[in-house]
């Protein structure tokens, strides 16, 4: 098949390399930085530059850019997409992307499916992209119609072919509610945690737990600002709930209440054990 990748950063570049590695597809690539497109060609991550003229040849179009830009791109190029084409995004929010696209493009003969690959690194850009970035990862898919089993199986196969181990089908609302906890909250906490004055004084005093807590503080603030504000209701609810839970620990420690503190810690340990038992 002919596959177009719009945006050749970490995710888009890795997708291009992964699909190219299968040897079954011709890859067209586009990026706002023309030097990135040239590098993608030179490293054989893509076969050709994606243009207004050849986008109509592509069976699959995958858009790996920011949410608002994704919506604008799909609406602008809707008349150019091949009849029957599958169009996916890779954004970390779904209501702000899927709903306006489905509404604006309902009369065009292509199918838009929301997508969110649950893989990444603390670095961004094509230089850090990897062909095996998605091996063993989960892919979240958000189709408009979740009842066509044959169609769902066909789009699952596309992503399994490049290494995804689990395909999760959901709705825009459910995606954004859960991702506020599993991803966005973690980035907020990491960003806030590293701002402690002690962070400049800990050399020789830190190990794995510190590294785990601070890894995702090395984020792209432009992208994550857009993601957070696009999902502010669900995310602020998670932040407020976390503050409430942290206050319980703080109050128990301040008052020297060993029983309450021990109970809070036990509950946390048991919650983690239960999550691991569920494979989470």
How does this structure look, described?
This protein is α/β, with parallel strands linked by helices. It contains ten helices and eight strands. It has helices spanning 10-21, 34-42, 67-77, 95-104, 149-160, 172-193, 208-214, 221-230, 232-254, 258-277, and strands at 2-6, 26-30, 48-49, 60-63, 86-89, 111-118, 138-142, 166-169. The protein has an eight-stranded mixed β-sheet with strand order 3-2-1-4-5-6-7-8, sandwiched between helices. The model has no long low-confidence stretch (mean pLDDT 95).
Number of strands: 8
Estimated helix fraction: 40-55%
Strand content: 5-15%
Major β-sheet annotation: 8 strands, mixed
Helical run tally:
10
* SSE arrangement, N to C: EHEHEEHEHEEHEHHHHH
Overall average pLDDT: 95
End-to-end Cα distance, whole Å, is: 34 Å
Structural class: alpha/beta
What best-fitting shape do the alpha-carbon axes yield? globular
Enumerate the strands of the largest sheet in spatial order, edge to edge or round the barrel.
3-2-1-4-5-6-7-8
Task: Give the uncertain stretches in residue-range form.
Answer: none
Radius of gyration: 21 Å
Task: State the gist of this model.
The chain is an alpha/beta fold and about 280 residues long.
Topology:
Blueprint: E1 2-6, H1 10-21, E2 26-30, H2 34-42, E3 48-49, E4 60-63, H3 67-77, E5 86-89, H4 95-104, E6 111-118, E7 138-142, H5 149-160, E8 166-169, H6 172-193, H7 208-214, H8 221-230, H9 232-254, H10 258-277
Parallel strand pairs: 1-2, 1-4, 2-3, 4-5, 5-6, 7-8
Antiparallel strand pairs: 6-7
Helix pairs in contact: 3-4, 6-9, 9-10
């Amino acid at each position: 098949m002919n596959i177009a990748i719009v945006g050749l950063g970490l995710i888009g570049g890795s997708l291009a390399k992964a699909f190219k590695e299968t040897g079954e597809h011709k890859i067209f690539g586009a990026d706002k930085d023309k030097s990135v497109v040239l590098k993608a060609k030179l490293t054989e991550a893509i076969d050709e530059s994606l243009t207004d003229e050849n986008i109509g040849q592509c069976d699959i179009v995958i858009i790996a850019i920011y949410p608002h830009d994704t919506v604008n791109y799909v609406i602008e190029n809707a008349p150019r997409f091949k009849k029957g084409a599958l169009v996916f995004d890779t954004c970390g929010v779904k209501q702000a992307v899927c709903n306006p696209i489905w509404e604006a493009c309902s009369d065009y003969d292509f199918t838009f499916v929301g997508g969110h690959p649950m893989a990444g690194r603390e670095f961004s850009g094509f230089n850090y992209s990897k062909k095996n970035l998605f091996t063993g990862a989960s892919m979240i898919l958000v189709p408009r119609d979740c009842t066509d089993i044959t169609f769902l199986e066909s789009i699952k196969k596309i992503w399994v072919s490049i290494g995804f181990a689990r395909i999760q089908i959901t709705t825009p609302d459910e995606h954004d509610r859960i991702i506020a906890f599993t991803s966005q909250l973690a980035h907020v906490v990491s960003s806030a945690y590293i701002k402690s004055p002690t962070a400049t004084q800990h050399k020789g005093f830190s190990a794995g737990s510190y590294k785990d807590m601070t890894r995702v503080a090395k984020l792209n603030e432009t992208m994550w600002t857009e993601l957070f504000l696009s999902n502010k209701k669900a995310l602020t609810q998670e932040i407020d709930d976390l503050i409430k839970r942290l206050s319980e620990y703080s109050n128990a420690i301040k008052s020297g209440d060993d029983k309450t503190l021990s109970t809070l810690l036990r509950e946390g340990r048991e919650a983690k054990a239960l999550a691991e038992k569920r494979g989470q």
